[in-house]
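Hi U.,

Before I forget, here's the chain from the pilot set. I'm dumping it here mostly so it's searchable later in email.
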Amino acid sequence: MEMLEGTTVLDLASVGPAARASRWLADYGATVVKIGPVPKDEGVQIVPPFYAYSAHRRMQRALLDMKAPEGRETFLRLAEHADVVIESFRPGVVERLGIGWDAVSARNPRAVYCSTTGFGQTGPHSQWAGHDLNYLGVGGYLHCSGRDADGRPSLPGLTVADSAGGGMHAVMAILAALVRRATTGAGAYLDVSIADGVLGLMALAADEYLATGEAPRPGHGLLTGRDACYDTYPTRDGKWLTVAAIEPRFWANLCRALGLEQWIAHQNDVAAQEEIRADLRAVFLTRDRDDWTAVLAPADTCVAPVLTVPEAIADEQYRARDDFVDAAHAEHGTFRQVGPVFAGMQRPDAPYEARDATVTDTDAILESAGLSGDERAELRDAGVIA
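Structure:
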């Protein structure tokens, strides 16, 4: 039995952190129903590429006109049977639509209702529009990260705020609420702020400043580039290595392997860091990345390669972990995708079905919620469902 088998999630989001949250909940076995607008309201939501969000594998879809009273009532009838509702509208929108926490909890007191927004439901910035980069900026992440040659904060290689600050934040909160509900029987309202999530991820740096008054910045500490033992280095073939030899024994192993024993006792000597870094750089430039990886990675040195995405996908470690799966799409054929890789998720026995976004399960979903055939036909004739 999968960990969230028997848990039903209604997801009102099409993209972003909330969609990531429902993606992971589905991979843990939850029944996720994506609620979207009827065709006449096309353009209300972004339609992601067919492969995005793991091609919405294992998810169902229902289309409802939430602006119509009958559509709102249909959604609330679905919510009566749901365990979780996830939405990502701006603060106040779901209340105006009549599908907010108060309306849902009145019909289903056991429901866990998760609102995922950029800055949360309260505060002077709650109505600001934003995306991943904005949240990384206000949370201090970009300031503490590496800089380009002109001093510009570097753009991150993935959407850290959407993924960890928002999506994983929402999943953790939802699971915690479900655990509490198992004891108390009560649902919960969850105000997930992505900016709050980024601040939580920055706690090491923020707590240092709050306790000491020392303002973190690039190169300020061990983890932000101060010391040569924690950095990236180019190799002869123009590729890169990561070095993260924080512990003294790993640093000693690395120095011995590189013929730089003179630096073993100076790992944290502030005055020597640039000279140490120059020596490391000079030695690493004498061989290719993969040659160094073969020698150093198994030798307790905390050295690993910087891989491109294609290289990461071909890497023997991910292959051995069976981290990629097949999906089949009627138009685009069979393709590979990252599988359910988080601990406790179950791998599939066959390729996932990647359905076209126009395919819906509205009838079956509404029937399971108790709407009769006549009711469904009336709603469809009125353009309320599709």
